[in-house]
Amino acid sequence: MFKTSTFLICILIALCGCKDNQTETSAPNQIVSAASISLNNQGVGEMGLFNYAKATLTFEKLLKENPQWPIAQQNMAIALLNRQKPGDEELAMAIAHKLIESNPQNLIAHYIIAILKFNGGLCAEALPHFEKIIDADPSDAYAMYFAGQCDLQNGQLQKAMNN
Q1: Within-domain flag for 27
Q2: In 3D, which of 36, 27, 101, 84 has the Cα closest to residue 63?
Q3: What is the pLDDT of residues 94-141, one digit of tens each?
Q4: What pTM value is reported for the model?
């Protein structure tokens, strides 16, 4: 379980550096101060050091200043997902759903939901989110791997082998 969690953590941290095509965040008109960007970078760095409790506090502060900034919301959800205190997964899921409501193309939010559902053994619910990611980026090997795992668990061997 620890190896799986560490692997998923690395994936989600790597997603923080996704290409700048607005599909992850889509907040083109939002102005964010240099101090807020610095605070966000601090939180991402704390996650990189696996200090999710500290990162959560950093993102809480950041969200007080920028409550509508999708990147801060995404990073808070990732920090919560990885901190793993009681209620964190539910809060991370709620944040990700809110992000998708405001931007259905937010791939990081889809990843957060998909990983949480997958880890909870809910592959049928995770699969549409992995497929959304694959549709947007057919070269995303992680999404293809997890979609294949879901297909396999759902008894769809041929589809799993095609992923």
Answers
A1: no
A2: 36
A3: 999 999 999 999 999 999 999 999 999 999 999 999 999 999 999 999
A4: 0.78
